[in-house]
Amino acid sequence: MTVSNEPVPTQYWVKALNDEIVRSNPLPPDMWGTWTGNNPPQQWVQYTWNQPMRISGSQIDFWNDQPQGTGVGVAAPARWRIQYWNLATGQWTDVPNPSGYPTGTQGFQNTTFDPVTTTQVRALFDASTNGSTYSAVAVEEWKILAAQPASVTAPSMTVEVGEVELPDTLPVAFGDETLQIPVFWDPLTPEQVTKPGTVTIQGTVLGYAGGRVSAQVNVISPDDTEGDVTPPTVTLTPSGSAGAAGWFRSAVRVRVAGVDDRGGRLTIESRVNAGQPVVATDVRHVDVNVSGDGQHTVTATATDRAGNASAPASLAVRIDATAPVSAATVDGTTRGVTVTARDTTSGVARIEYAIDTGAWTTYSDAIAAPDANKHTVSFRAIDLAGNLETAKTVTIPADLYGPLTDNIGPIATPSASYTASWNSLTALNDNADPPSPSQAQIWGTWSGTRPATQWVQYDWSRPVRLVGTELKFWRDSNRGTGDGVAQPDGWVLQYWDEAASAWRDVTGAAAYGTSTTAFNTVTFDPVTTPRVRATVQANGNGTTYSAVAITEWRIFADDPGVAAQLLKAAQDAVAAAETNPSADTITTAETAIAKVTDATQVTALNQRLTVVKHLVHTRDLLNHIAATELTTPAQLDTAVTDLTDATTTLKQIPTDRQGDLPQQLATAKRRLADALADFFATPVQGKPEPIKRPWLDLVISDTYDRTGTTDLHDHVMSIVRSHTTGQQVTIAINEFLATR
Prior knowledge:
This protein is of the alpha+beta class. It has 5 domains: 2-146, Jelly Rolls, CATH 2.60.120.260; 157-220, no CATH class; 233-319, Immunoglobulin-like, CATH 2.60.40.10; 325-396, Immunoglobulin-like (Sandwich), CATH 2.60.40; 404-559, Jelly Rolls (Sandwich), CATH 2.60.120.260. The chain is 18% helix and 35% strand. The chain contains 8 helices and 34 strands. Strands 27, 28, 29, 30, 31, 32, 33 and 34 form an 8-stranded antiparallel β-sheet that branches. It is elongated. The N and C termini lie far apart (97 Å).
């Protein structure tokens, strides 16, 4: 037997599955079970035989302590099915034409199916769920029923004098198929095999309902070797939990069987890999145990009593008994789930995943969140040998980016001052309100020491605008007893004040009811906070206090979402930059825009911010010119470049946004032109440097501004005569005038 939940919790026994003990009021460990604090969506149990068996039915006895659909405790599975190992395909296959898979918990649940031949069979259980958590599964007994042959005729057997061990299988025909089925013979006594002769014996065939069978046993002398020159034959037959692609998923027993033409016993020598040979005398077979993941080779020879030795026989045995290991990560931005897996022996065949209670799907790429809600993703890996990893889970958090309305309790992370072990913290926000909840469907605080106040708390990953709440209490005792779970004296809702790092009572709250039969609804002044807490005042008798319990706690939001908040922040930042253009306000606005996801809004905001950047850039260029002395060629060259850049940038700013920049530009231009005139008028030794074209263009533009086109050439030449030619000035003036 193998099960999915190794190591099995100590309160359960795997051996209970087939111990043929069924009690009227069983308790652990009278069963196999899977309960832990975190139950996966699927479990399985498996039977393996050493030789192929013909099966056609099942009887299973489920145990429960919770009803289906609660998602807690131990419940009958939501559904289940039987699969067999298809020897032809090397794959698990659903049994053909099952009569049905009932899930009752009172007595055996019967299933019949068309007969199949297999070495392995398993039951797969889809755990019962409430939509968010899963119940465990428990089975008190599981029987697999053998298919019935038309009849069983035992062949004769041969033993040597003094040999009392008989074959443990016999051939049984199922139509055109013959299988070796286990048989349990009545013991041979030493008196029956003291000399050659024949003996009749009876036995019971496993699973055969037609009664006991009889067989003839021939007793021969071990000394009958004269003229024997024929070596025995050797066969090696593996048995174990067969896997796919020629792998075994467990340790393997290799039966080395020898047959001699005279019917006598043999000496068999066997070895595993390069180990020491093991010799067994006076045997008909030996069992060789092979273990450890990897590839192994079993070799064997047989020698009869006449000394004839068989040729060596060998068998390759590949074992991968270790399930692959997978891991998942959740992208905090996209909420996508990435799963990886590794297997060091046969290799990973595939990864499967399921979202919430959905069907298993083969993993190919990151798992996208189906919507904005919180989801549980189950995942598991399967290796090439067929080992199936026990499913793991990871939570996709709710997307708090968009607008939030209505009850947002289910997407919160709950916590509490205390939770009784038989109650459930997650019952607070499981979005369920059963009329008669089980203990696992409520949050409760009963213990030997019960304080005067208890609290429950919800946390979100960002501040949320909250407008109301409601909760329903639960009781099993009356007020004034100071014992059990009683209706509380009162409660109050508090929010976390991030600025003060303190809890504050919500303001404008309606009356706080304490009903245990209806929700107690409270509205209050809207508050934006990342966490809220309901503090409950327990009822008492003056000396001790009763515990408190809640079946469901809802909290209501009216929140525009992060997107709206981020857009508003970006719009405010751009407006601030427009009011006070500077490098700092531009950087602040750029940071805010980067958080906006609406492409249209981003484009519009960037267009506005670009104007601000032009304003700041133009102003900085003009300020730089104003602060420069303008006496050296390098200073003049830099100033001319800055002025050209400022002129170009100013043209990209809407006229109504330019302010006094045109006046500043004109002032800078006039000052720079005067500085150039002074520079050209200064005598130099040797031949003057030719005028740079940007300098000449500036002189022409400034002269044009002062005098217009009248005698423009002569006025320009009077300034730059020693640094250029009249022809160059004419060309530059013509190009300038062409742009006017």
